Protein backbone atom coordinates (compact mmCIF):
# COMPACT_ATOMS: atom_id res chain seq x y z
CA UNK A 1 0.00 0.00 0.00
CA UNK A 2 0.95 3.62 -0.52
CA UNK A 3 4.59 3.45 0.41
CA UNK A 4 6.17 6.53 1.86
CA UNK A 5 3.07 7.74 3.65
CA UNK A 6 4.14 7.48 7.25
CA UNK A 7 1.45 8.34 9.77
CA UNK A 8 2.83 10.37 12.67
CA UNK A 9 1.69 10.74 16.25
CA UNK A 10 3.09 12.32 19.35
CA UNK A 11 2.84 10.89 22.84
CA UNK A 12 2.23 7.48 24.31
CA UNK A 13 -1.56 7.58 24.42
CA UNK A 14 -3.49 5.01 22.40
CA UNK A 15 -0.19 3.26 21.71
CA UNK A 16 -1.77 -0.15 21.14
CA UNK A 17 -4.52 1.03 18.82
CA UNK A 18 -2.10 2.95 16.65
CA UNK A 19 0.15 -0.07 16.20
CA UNK A 20 -2.81 -2.31 15.41
CA UNK A 21 -4.17 0.13 12.84
CA UNK A 22 -0.75 0.34 11.23
CA UNK A 23 -0.48 -3.43 10.86
CA UNK A 24 -4.03 -3.80 9.55
CA UNK A 25 -3.78 -0.91 7.10
CA UNK A 26 -0.22 -1.66 6.02
CA UNK A 27 0.76 1.97 6.65
CA UNK A 28 3.93 2.66 8.63
CA UNK A 29 3.54 4.67 11.81
CA UNK A 30 5.98 6.90 13.64
CA UNK A 31 5.26 7.78 17.24
CA UNK A 32 7.52 10.33 18.88
CA UNK A 33 7.55 12.25 22.13
CA UNK A 34 6.85 9.13 24.18
CA UNK A 35 6.76 10.47 27.75
CA UNK A 36 9.42 12.97 26.70
CA UNK A 37 8.42 15.30 29.56
CA UNK A 38 8.48 12.59 32.17
CA UNK A 39 11.21 12.29 34.79
CA UNK A 40 11.74 8.84 33.36
CA UNK A 41 11.14 9.30 29.64
CA UNK A 42 10.55 6.75 26.97
CA UNK A 43 8.87 3.42 26.42
CA UNK A 44 7.92 1.25 29.37
CA UNK A 45 8.78 -2.43 29.62
CA UNK A 46 5.21 -3.43 28.74
CA UNK A 47 5.29 -1.34 25.57
CA UNK A 48 8.60 -2.85 24.48
CA UNK A 49 7.17 -6.26 25.29
CA UNK A 50 4.11 -5.52 23.16
CA UNK A 51 6.35 -4.54 20.25
CA UNK A 52 8.17 -7.84 20.61
CA UNK A 53 4.86 -9.71 20.68
CA UNK A 54 3.70 -7.94 17.52
CA UNK A 55 7.01 -8.88 15.92
CA UNK A 56 6.34 -12.53 16.76
CA UNK A 57 2.80 -12.47 15.42
CA UNK A 58 3.77 -10.77 12.17
CA UNK A 59 6.31 -11.54 9.52
CA UNK A 60 8.55 -8.85 8.06
CA UNK A 61 7.66 -6.11 10.51
CA UNK A 62 10.45 -3.62 11.06
CA UNK A 63 10.55 -1.74 14.33
CA UNK A 64 13.04 1.01 15.01
CA UNK A 65 13.37 2.62 18.40
CA UNK A 66 15.13 5.90 18.86
CA UNK A 67 16.49 7.52 22.00
CA UNK A 68 17.32 11.03 20.93
CA UNK A 69 16.03 11.26 17.41
CA UNK A 70 18.64 9.07 15.77
CA UNK A 71 17.44 5.54 15.29
CA UNK A 72 19.84 3.36 17.21
CA UNK A 73 18.35 -0.04 16.82
CA UNK A 74 17.63 -1.33 13.37
CA UNK A 75 15.54 -4.24 12.36
CA UNK A 76 14.47 -5.80 15.56
CA UNK A 77 13.25 -4.88 18.98
CA UNK A 78 14.93 -7.91 20.50
CA UNK A 79 17.54 -6.98 23.01
CA UNK A 80 16.16 -3.53 23.50
CA UNK A 81 15.57 -4.02 27.17
CA UNK A 82 19.24 -3.49 27.82
CA UNK A 83 19.42 -0.22 25.91
CA UNK A 84 17.98 3.02 27.21
CA UNK A 85 14.26 3.23 26.61
CA UNK A 86 13.45 5.19 23.47
CA UNK A 87 11.13 8.14 23.12
CA UNK A 88 10.28 7.48 19.46
CA UNK A 89 9.42 4.42 17.43
CA UNK A 90 8.89 3.68 13.79
CA UNK A 91 6.91 0.61 12.81
CA UNK A 92 6.86 -0.66 9.25
CA UNK A 93 4.22 -3.36 9.24
CA UNK A 94 4.69 -6.81 7.76
CA UNK A 95 2.01 -9.43 7.30
CA UNK A 96 0.08 -11.03 10.15
CA UNK A 97 1.45 -14.56 10.27
CA UNK A 98 -0.26 -16.16 13.29
CA UNK A 99 0.43 -19.78 14.23
CA UNK A 100 1.48 -21.19 17.60
CA UNK A 101 3.19 -18.60 19.82
CA UNK A 102 4.24 -18.15 23.44
CA UNK A 103 4.86 -14.82 25.16
CA UNK A 104 5.86 -13.97 28.70
CA UNK A 105 4.22 -10.71 29.71
CA UNK A 106 6.00 -8.36 32.10
CA UNK A 107 4.36 -8.03 35.51
CA UNK A 108 3.66 -4.32 35.02
CA UNK A 109 0.53 -5.10 32.97
CA UNK A 110 -1.91 -7.98 32.81
CA UNK A 111 -2.28 -10.37 29.89
CA UNK A 112 -5.35 -8.33 28.89
CA UNK A 113 -3.10 -5.45 27.80
CA UNK A 114 -1.47 -7.77 25.29
CA UNK A 115 -4.54 -9.76 24.30
CA UNK A 116 -6.71 -6.79 23.37
CA UNK A 117 -4.57 -5.72 20.38
CA UNK A 118 -3.95 -9.36 19.42
CA UNK A 119 -7.71 -9.96 19.26
CA UNK A 120 -7.99 -7.11 16.76
CA UNK A 121 -5.33 -8.67 14.52
CA UNK A 122 -5.87 -12.41 14.91
CA UNK A 123 -8.87 -12.89 12.58
CA UNK A 124 -6.81 -11.46 9.71
CA UNK A 125 -3.76 -13.68 10.10
CA UNK A 126 -2.28 -16.07 7.58
CA UNK A 127 -2.74 -19.03 9.92
CA UNK A 128 -5.02 -19.40 12.98
CA UNK A 129 -3.35 -18.05 16.08
CA UNK A 130 -2.69 -20.19 19.16
CA UNK A 131 -1.14 -17.79 21.59
CA UNK A 132 -0.05 -18.69 25.11
CA UNK A 133 0.44 -15.69 27.38
CA UNK A 134 1.95 -15.90 30.86
CA UNK A 135 1.66 -13.25 33.55
CA UNK A 136 -1.07 -11.51 35.49
CA UNK A 137 -4.59 -12.56 34.54
CA UNK A 138 -6.64 -9.90 36.36
CA UNK A 139 -5.74 -6.33 37.26
CA UNK A 140 -7.30 -2.89 37.51
CA UNK A 141 -6.13 -1.51 34.20
CA UNK A 142 -7.15 -3.82 31.41
CA UNK A 143 -9.82 -6.37 30.68
CA UNK A 144 -9.23 -9.51 32.72
CA UNK A 145 -8.96 -12.93 31.19
CA UNK A 146 -12.49 -13.60 32.50
CA UNK A 147 -14.04 -10.59 30.79
CA UNK A 148 -12.21 -11.27 27.55
CA UNK A 149 -13.47 -14.84 27.57
CA UNK A 150 -17.07 -14.08 28.45
CA UNK A 151 -17.63 -10.64 26.91
CA UNK A 152 -14.97 -9.64 24.37
CA UNK A 153 -14.95 -12.87 22.37
CA UNK A 154 -18.76 -12.93 21.94
CA UNK A 155 -18.40 -9.49 20.36
CA UNK A 156 -16.30 -11.06 17.59
CA UNK A 157 -19.16 -13.47 16.91
CA UNK A 158 -21.31 -10.51 15.88
CA UNK A 159 -18.96 -10.16 12.93
CA UNK A 160 -18.94 -13.82 11.97
CA UNK A 161 -15.76 -14.80 13.82
CA UNK A 162 -16.80 -17.78 15.90
CA UNK A 163 -15.72 -21.34 15.10
CA UNK A 164 -12.74 -22.27 17.20
CA UNK A 165 -12.66 -18.95 19.05
CA UNK A 166 -11.60 -19.64 22.61
CA UNK A 167 -9.71 -18.35 25.61
CA UNK A 168 -8.59 -20.92 28.15
CA UNK A 169 -7.55 -19.76 31.58
CA UNK A 170 -5.08 -22.44 32.56
CA UNK A 171 -3.63 -20.77 35.61
CA UNK A 172 -4.64 -17.63 37.41
CA UNK A 173 -2.12 -15.01 38.38
CA UNK A 174 -2.89 -12.11 40.67
CA UNK A 175 -0.62 -9.06 40.90
CA UNK A 176 2.13 -8.49 41.82
CA UNK A 177 3.59 -11.98 41.38
CA UNK A 178 1.50 -13.18 38.46
CA UNK A 179 2.18 -16.76 37.47
CA UNK A 180 -0.99 -17.08 35.42
CA UNK A 181 -1.35 -18.58 31.97
CA UNK A 182 -3.97 -18.24 29.28
CA UNK A 183 -4.27 -19.68 25.81
CA UNK A 184 -6.02 -17.77 23.04
CA UNK A 185 -7.26 -19.57 19.95
CA UNK A 186 -8.69 -17.60 17.05
CA UNK A 187 -9.90 -18.71 13.64
CA UNK A 188 -9.09 -16.69 10.53
CA UNK A 189 -11.70 -15.13 8.27
CA UNK A 190 -11.71 -13.84 4.73
CA UNK A 191 -13.94 -10.91 5.55
CA UNK A 192 -16.00 -9.75 8.50
CA UNK A 193 -19.76 -9.32 8.33
CA UNK A 194 -21.44 -5.96 8.25
CA UNK A 195 -22.90 -5.14 11.65
CA UNK A 196 -26.46 -4.03 12.18
CA UNK A 197 -26.99 -3.90 15.92
CA UNK A 198 -29.58 -1.34 16.95
CA UNK A 199 -31.99 -3.08 19.32
CA UNK A 200 -30.81 -2.98 22.93
CA UNK A 201 -33.52 -5.31 24.26
CA UNK A 202 -33.93 -5.86 27.97
CA UNK A 203 -31.60 -7.48 30.45
CA UNK A 204 -32.66 -11.09 30.88
CA UNK A 205 -29.78 -12.68 32.75
CA UNK A 206 -26.76 -11.84 34.85
CA UNK A 207 -23.70 -14.01 35.10
CA UNK A 208 -20.60 -13.61 37.15
CA UNK A 209 -17.29 -15.19 37.99
CA UNK A 210 -15.94 -14.80 41.45
CA UNK A 211 -12.46 -16.04 42.11
CA UNK A 212 -10.08 -16.03 45.03
CA UNK A 213 -6.55 -17.37 44.86
CA UNK A 214 -4.17 -17.93 47.76
CA UNK A 215 -6.66 -16.46 50.20
CA UNK A 216 -9.54 -17.95 52.18
CA UNK A 217 -11.80 -19.58 49.52
CA UNK A 218 -14.80 -18.27 51.48
CA UNK A 219 -13.97 -14.80 50.09
CA UNK A 220 -15.36 -15.90 46.77
CA UNK A 221 -18.72 -16.82 48.29
CA UNK A 222 -18.82 -13.65 50.32
CA UNK A 223 -18.47 -11.61 47.13
CA UNK A 224 -21.29 -13.56 45.49
CA UNK A 225 -23.59 -12.98 48.43
CA UNK A 226 -22.91 -9.24 48.46
CA UNK A 227 -23.52 -8.91 44.72
CA UNK A 228 -26.79 -10.80 45.04
CA UNK A 229 -27.98 -8.45 47.75
CA UNK A 230 -28.31 -5.79 45.05
CA UNK A 231 -29.00 -7.81 41.92
CA UNK A 232 -31.70 -10.16 43.21
CA UNK A 233 -34.28 -7.40 43.02
CA UNK A 234 -34.13 -7.21 39.24
CA UNK A 235 -34.33 -10.65 37.66
CA UNK A 236 -34.36 -14.27 38.82
CA UNK A 237 -31.87 -15.52 36.23
CA UNK A 238 -28.66 -14.78 38.10
CA UNK A 239 -25.84 -17.26 38.25
CA UNK A 240 -22.62 -16.22 39.93
CA UNK A 241 -19.97 -18.88 39.69
CA UNK A 242 -17.25 -19.37 42.24
CA UNK A 243 -14.22 -20.35 40.19
CA UNK A 244 -11.72 -22.33 42.20
CA UNK A 245 -8.06 -22.67 41.25
CA UNK A 246 -5.75 -24.57 43.56
CA UNK A 247 -2.05 -25.16 44.05
CA UNK A 248 0.08 -24.49 40.99
CA UNK A 249 -2.92 -23.18 39.06
CA UNK A 250 -3.54 -20.32 41.44
CA UNK A 251 -0.45 -18.28 40.65
CA UNK A 252 2.11 -16.66 42.86
CA UNK A 253 0.22 -13.93 44.73
CA UNK A 254 -2.96 -13.73 46.77
CA UNK A 255 -5.90 -11.89 45.28
CA UNK A 256 -9.56 -12.06 44.42
CA UNK A 257 -11.96 -10.40 42.02
CA UNK A 258 -15.55 -10.38 40.85
CA UNK A 259 -16.38 -10.10 37.14
CA UNK A 260 -20.02 -9.53 36.19
CA UNK A 261 -21.92 -9.48 32.95
CA UNK A 262 -25.50 -8.71 32.06
CA UNK A 263 -27.04 -10.06 28.86
CA UNK A 264 -30.10 -8.65 27.13
CA UNK A 265 -32.78 -10.35 25.04
CA UNK A 266 -30.91 -9.18 21.93
CA UNK A 267 -27.53 -10.45 23.23
CA UNK A 268 -26.20 -7.09 24.31
CA UNK A 269 -23.46 -7.64 26.90
CA UNK A 270 -22.57 -5.20 29.64
CA UNK A 271 -19.73 -6.01 32.00
CA UNK A 272 -17.91 -4.78 35.05
CA UNK A 273 -15.23 -5.91 37.39
CA UNK A 274 -13.57 -5.06 40.68
CA UNK A 275 -10.40 -6.54 42.09
CA UNK A 276 -9.09 -6.99 45.61
CA UNK A 277 -7.31 -4.14 47.35
CA UNK A 278 -5.44 -4.28 50.62
CA UNK A 279 -7.66 -3.44 53.57
CA UNK A 280 -10.94 -3.65 51.63
CA UNK A 281 -13.43 -6.39 52.50
CA UNK A 282 -14.56 -8.80 49.77
CA UNK A 283 -18.13 -7.53 50.24
CA UNK A 284 -17.07 -4.01 49.32
CA UNK A 285 -15.22 -5.23 46.23
CA UNK A 286 -18.37 -7.05 45.17
CA UNK A 287 -20.53 -3.97 45.74
CA UNK A 288 -18.15 -1.91 43.58
CA UNK A 289 -18.38 -4.42 40.75
CA UNK A 290 -22.16 -4.63 41.07
CA UNK A 291 -22.68 -0.89 41.06
CA UNK A 292 -20.32 -0.51 38.12
CA UNK A 293 -22.47 -3.06 36.28
CA UNK A 294 -25.61 -1.04 37.01
CA UNK A 295 -23.83 2.07 35.72
CA UNK A 296 -23.01 0.29 32.48
CA UNK A 297 -26.58 -0.97 32.10
CA UNK A 298 -27.96 2.53 32.71
CA UNK A 299 -25.76 3.97 29.96
CA UNK A 300 -27.68 1.89 27.43
CA UNK A 301 -26.81 1.10 23.84
CA UNK A 302 -25.87 -2.26 22.35
CA UNK A 303 -22.19 -2.27 23.26
CA UNK A 304 -20.47 -1.86 26.59
CA UNK A 305 -18.22 1.23 26.74
CA UNK A 306 -15.12 -0.94 27.18
CA UNK A 307 -15.79 -2.59 23.83
CA UNK A 308 -16.59 0.45 21.72
CA UNK A 309 -13.21 0.49 19.98
CA UNK A 310 -13.26 -3.19 19.05
CA UNK A 311 -16.73 -2.91 17.54
CA UNK A 312 -15.86 0.30 15.70
CA UNK A 313 -12.74 -1.27 14.21
CA UNK A 314 -14.60 -4.32 12.94
CA UNK A 315 -17.32 -2.08 11.51
CA UNK A 316 -14.66 -0.21 9.52
CA UNK A 317 -13.22 -3.48 8.25
CA UNK A 318 -16.68 -4.78 7.27
CA UNK A 319 -17.85 -5.41 3.71
CA UNK A 320 -18.70 -2.44 1.51
CA UNK A 321 -22.03 -1.70 3.03
CA UNK A 322 -23.34 0.53 5.79
CA UNK A 323 -22.76 -0.91 9.26
CA UNK A 324 -24.83 0.42 12.12
CA UNK A 325 -24.53 0.13 15.86
CA UNK A 326 -26.31 1.75 18.75
CA UNK A 327 -23.93 2.79 21.52
CA UNK A 328 -23.71 5.18 24.41
CA UNK A 329 -21.57 8.32 24.45
CA UNK A 330 -18.01 7.69 23.23
CA UNK A 331 -15.23 7.42 25.81
CA UNK A 332 -12.10 9.59 25.37
CA UNK A 333 -10.31 6.54 23.96
CA UNK A 334 -13.11 5.99 21.46
CA UNK A 335 -12.97 9.60 20.28
CA UNK A 336 -9.25 9.33 19.67
CA UNK A 337 -9.72 5.95 18.01
CA UNK A 338 -12.29 7.42 15.60
CA UNK A 339 -9.78 10.12 14.69
CA UNK A 340 -6.98 7.59 14.26
CA UNK A 341 -9.17 5.42 12.03
CA UNK A 342 -9.73 8.42 9.80
CA UNK A 343 -5.94 8.82 9.53
CA UNK A 344 -5.37 5.20 8.52
CA UNK A 345 -8.47 4.23 6.56
CA UNK A 346 -10.07 7.54 5.64
CA UNK A 347 -13.31 6.31 7.15
CA UNK A 348 -15.64 8.78 8.84
CA UNK A 349 -18.44 7.70 11.13
CA UNK A 350 -21.84 9.28 11.18
CA UNK A 351 -22.95 9.69 14.79
CA UNK A 352 -26.50 10.79 15.39
CA UNK A 353 -29.08 10.50 18.18
CA UNK A 354 -30.59 7.01 18.13
CA UNK A 355 -34.02 8.20 19.23
CA UNK A 356 -34.49 11.73 17.85
CA UNK A 357 -38.03 11.77 19.21
CA UNK A 358 -37.02 11.08 22.80
CA UNK A 359 -35.17 14.08 24.19
CA UNK A 360 -34.00 12.29 27.32
CA UNK A 361 -32.33 9.42 25.50
CA UNK A 362 -28.58 9.83 25.08
CA UNK A 363 -28.10 6.74 22.92
CA UNK A 364 -26.26 7.37 19.68
CA UNK A 365 -26.34 5.59 16.37
CA UNK A 366 -22.89 5.03 14.90
CA UNK A 367 -22.77 4.17 11.24
CA UNK A 368 -20.04 3.90 8.66
CA UNK A 369 -19.40 2.51 5.22
CA UNK A 370 -17.21 -0.58 5.51
CA UNK A 371 -13.87 -0.58 3.71
CA UNK A 372 -14.43 -4.08 2.36
CA UNK A 373 -11.23 -5.26 4.04
CA UNK A 374 -10.17 -8.65 2.74
CA UNK A 375 -7.73 -10.85 4.58
CA UNK A 376 -5.01 -11.08 1.96
CA UNK A 377 -2.66 -12.94 4.31
CA UNK A 378 -4.93 -15.97 4.54
CA UNK A 379 -3.54 -19.31 3.46
CA UNK A 380 -5.56 -20.50 0.51
CA UNK A 381 -5.66 -24.20 1.20
CA UNK B 1 -36.34 10.39 37.21
CA UNK B 2 -32.94 11.03 38.71
CA UNK B 3 -31.24 11.00 35.38
CA UNK B 4 -31.49 14.36 33.75
CA UNK B 5 -30.20 14.55 30.20
CA UNK B 6 -29.00 17.73 28.64
CA UNK B 7 -31.38 19.42 26.27
CA UNK B 8 -29.08 20.60 23.55
CA UNK B 9 -28.01 18.04 21.01
CA UNK B 10 -24.32 17.71 20.52
CA UNK B 11 -22.90 17.45 17.03
CA UNK B 12 -20.51 14.58 17.66
CA UNK B 13 -19.31 14.37 14.09
CA UNK B 14 -18.25 18.00 14.13
CA UNK B 15 -16.58 17.74 17.53
CA UNK B 16 -14.67 14.60 16.67
CA UNK B 17 -13.60 15.30 13.10
CA UNK B 18 -13.42 19.06 12.73
CA UNK B 19 -12.12 20.31 16.06
CA UNK B 20 -8.67 20.17 17.58
CA UNK B 21 -9.98 19.62 21.08
CA UNK B 22 -8.62 16.68 22.99
CA UNK B 23 -11.15 13.89 23.66
CA UNK B 24 -11.24 14.86 27.33
CA UNK B 25 -11.97 18.47 26.42
CA UNK B 26 -14.82 17.43 24.15
CA UNK B 27 -16.41 15.32 26.85
CA UNK B 28 -16.01 18.03 29.47
CA UNK B 29 -18.06 20.45 27.40
CA UNK B 30 -21.80 20.19 27.92
CA UNK B 31 -22.64 20.77 24.26
CA UNK B 32 -21.12 21.36 20.87
CA UNK B 33 -21.58 25.10 20.72
CA UNK B 34 -19.62 25.56 23.90
CA UNK B 35 -16.93 23.26 22.64
CA UNK B 36 -16.61 25.29 19.48
CA UNK B 37 -16.38 28.50 21.45
CA UNK B 38 -13.70 27.13 23.67
CA UNK B 39 -11.82 26.06 20.61
CA UNK B 40 -12.12 29.50 19.08
CA UNK B 41 -10.82 31.12 22.23
CA UNK B 42 -7.96 28.70 22.30
CA UNK B 43 -6.89 29.11 18.69
CA UNK B 44 -7.11 32.86 19.09
CA UNK B 45 -4.79 32.69 22.06
CA UNK B 46 -2.34 30.55 20.16
CA UNK B 47 -2.39 32.81 17.12
CA UNK B 48 -1.34 35.74 19.23
CA UNK B 49 1.92 34.20 20.17
CA UNK B 50 4.79 33.09 18.08
CA UNK B 51 5.68 30.24 20.39
CA UNK B 52 3.32 27.43 21.14
CA UNK B 53 2.53 27.10 24.76
CA UNK B 54 1.42 23.84 26.24
CA UNK B 55 -2.29 23.47 26.69
CA UNK B 56 -2.88 24.01 30.39
CA UNK B 57 -5.74 21.48 30.45
CA UNK B 58 -3.34 18.68 29.62
CA UNK B 59 -0.99 19.49 32.43
CA UNK B 60 -3.88 19.65 34.84
CA UNK B 61 -5.15 16.22 33.93
CA UNK B 62 -1.62 14.89 34.04
CA UNK B 63 -1.06 16.06 37.55
CA UNK B 64 -4.50 15.03 38.77
CA UNK B 65 -4.25 11.43 37.72
CA UNK B 66 -1.20 9.65 39.05
CA UNK B 67 -1.78 6.79 36.62
CA UNK B 68 -1.99 9.14 33.70
CA UNK B 69 1.56 8.93 32.45
CA UNK B 70 2.19 5.30 33.18
CA UNK B 71 -1.15 3.76 32.36
CA UNK B 72 -3.05 6.08 30.09
CA UNK B 73 -3.39 3.29 27.53
CA UNK B 74 -5.79 1.15 29.54
CA UNK B 75 -9.14 -0.28 28.66
CA UNK B 76 -10.92 -0.50 31.99
CA UNK B 77 -12.10 2.79 33.43
CA UNK B 78 -11.03 3.49 36.98
CA UNK B 79 -13.96 2.87 39.30
CA UNK B 80 -15.06 6.14 40.75
CA UNK B 81 -16.41 5.69 44.30
CA UNK B 82 -18.39 8.94 44.15
CA UNK B 83 -20.02 7.92 40.90
CA UNK B 84 -20.83 4.45 42.21
CA UNK B 85 -22.24 5.65 45.51
CA UNK B 86 -25.35 6.92 43.76
CA UNK B 87 -26.43 3.29 43.54
CA UNK B 88 -26.84 3.18 47.31
CA UNK B 89 -30.04 5.09 46.76
CA UNK B 90 -33.20 3.00 46.54
CA UNK B 91 -34.84 5.33 44.03
CA UNK B 92 -31.79 5.14 41.79
CA UNK B 93 -31.88 1.35 41.89
CA UNK B 94 -35.55 1.38 40.92
CA UNK B 95 -34.96 3.88 38.11
CA UNK B 96 -33.35 1.29 35.85
CA UNK B 97 -35.92 -1.47 36.46
CA UNK B 98 -37.47 -0.81 33.05
CA UNK B 99 -34.22 -1.96 31.43
CA UNK B 100 -34.79 -5.52 32.72
CA UNK B 101 -37.29 -8.01 31.32
CA UNK B 102 -39.12 -8.04 34.63
CA UNK B 103 -39.66 -4.29 34.42
CA UNK B 104 -42.46 -2.53 32.59
CA UNK B 105 -41.89 -0.02 29.82
CA UNK B 106 -44.03 2.86 31.02
CA UNK B 107 -43.20 4.44 34.35
CA UNK B 108 -46.87 4.26 35.46
CA UNK B 109 -47.03 0.72 36.87
CA UNK B 110 -43.89 0.72 38.99
CA UNK B 111 -45.58 -1.24 41.77
CA UNK B 112 -45.08 -4.97 42.17
CA UNK B 113 -44.14 -6.49 38.87
CA UNK B 114 -43.28 -9.84 40.45
CA UNK B 115 -39.97 -8.55 41.72
CA UNK B 116 -37.10 -10.71 40.54
CA UNK B 117 -35.54 -11.15 43.94
CA UNK B 118 -38.00 -13.46 45.66
CA UNK B 119 -37.54 -16.78 43.91
CA UNK B 120 -33.83 -17.10 43.53
CA UNK B 121 -31.61 -17.40 46.55
UniProtKB/TrEMBL annotation, chain A:
<dbReference type="InterPro" id="IPR013791">
    <property type="entry name" value="RNA3'-term_phos_cycl_insert"/>
</dbReference>
<dbReference type="InterPro" id="IPR016443">
    <property type="entry name" value="RNA3'_term_phos_cyc_type_2"/>
</dbReference>
<protein>
    <submittedName>
        <fullName>18S rRNA biogenesis protein</fullName>
    </submittedName>
</protein>
<feature type="domain" description="RNA 3'-terminal phosphate cyclase">
    <location>
        <begin position="8"/>
        <end position="351"/>
    </location>
</feature>
<dbReference type="InterPro" id="IPR020719">
    <property type="entry name" value="RNA3'_term_phos_cycl-like_CS"/>
</dbReference>
<keyword id="KW-0690">Ribosome biogenesis</keyword>
<dbReference type="InterPro" id="IPR037136">
    <property type="entry name" value="RNA3'_phos_cyclase_dom_sf"/>
</dbReference>
<dbReference type="InterPro" id="IPR000228">
    <property type="entry name" value="RNA3'_term_phos_cyc"/>
</dbReference>
<dbReference type="Pfam" id="PF01137">
    <property type="entry name" value="RTC"/>
</dbReference>
<dbReference type="InterPro" id="IPR013792">
    <property type="entry name" value="RNA3'P_cycl/enolpyr_Trfase_a/b"/>
</dbReference>
<dbReference type="InterPro" id="IPR023797">
    <property type="entry name" value="RNA3'_phos_cyclase_dom"/>
</dbReference>
<comment type="similarity">
    <text>Belongs to the RNA 3'-terminal cyclase family. Type 2 subfamily.</text>
</comment>
<dbReference type="Pfam" id="PF05189">
    <property type="entry name" value="RTC_insert"/>
</dbReference>
<keyword id="KW-0539">Nucleus</keyword>
<dbReference type="InterPro" id="IPR036553">
    <property type="entry name" value="RPTC_insert"/>
</dbReference>
<feature type="domain" description="RNA 3'-terminal phosphate cyclase insert">
    <location>
        <begin position="199"/>
        <end position="298"/>
    </location>
</feature>
